[in-house]
Design brief:
alpha+beta, about 25% helix, globular
């Protein structure tokens, strides 16, 4: 939540399987908004909502995945608009929760 970047410094922020470890999502999303330029984009890959509470202890997960509505609301509070949320195909031998790909923008 304190990136070593100036305001409006980047075009794209990519968050790949990291947000479920972030304690203060609102601060993180505000910081992403701060460093994105006025037409900035955000790409997020993370876990779908799940009920594997043991991940909190065994892997340090703060959040047990994200639903589309939760992500849309939290991004929106930071001034970022969710544009798409797509569930990714699950591999037959996957052991963890399913994943999603979301895109968002600082403008509509």
């Amino acid at each position: 939540d304190q990136l070593p970047l100036s305001d409006d410094a980047i075009d794209v922020a990519i968050c790949c399987l990291v947000l479920h470890h972030v304690e203060d999502l609102d601060a993180a999303f505000r910081e992403i908004h701060r460093v994105l330029d006025s037409s900035g984009r955000v790409i997020i890959v993370d876990m779908l909502s799940h009920d594997r509470a043991e991940y909190r202890r065994s892997m340090g997960h703060v959040h047990l995945g994200f639903s589309q509505s939760m992500l849309e609301s939290r991004l929106g509070e930071a001034g970022i608009v969710l544009k798409s949320y797509t569930t990714l195909p699950l591999s037959p031998d996957a052991k963890g929760p399913g994943l999603f790909l979301a895109t968002a923008m600082t403008w509509e």
